[in-house]
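=== RUN LOG ===
request id: a7f3
mode: sequence -> structure
chains: 1
length: 85
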Amino acid sequence: MITGVALFNTNTGELVSLPNPNRHNHVISKMFKEMKVRPLRQDGWIQGFIDDQANFLDREQAAEHALECKQIKVRLDILFSEDLW
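=== RESULT ===
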């Protein structure tokens, strides 16, 4: 089950997440305000989700996982937090 939104850095392995009903912009804002980090894709940051086992799933993986868990009813190519909450 998807439980929150997250950003993951593919270069450093750093993960920043917030529980639902937060959105990705909330994570980005937190990172900028508290960590003084601008999470840009060219710096290795990708958007995705956290599941109930604390695993990071990118938007494509999360779409498949949410369908399997019946959090969404139709197959999506990529998942947005608006699709869940």
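=== NOTES ===
The chain has one domain: 2-83.
The mean pLDDT is 96.
=== END ===
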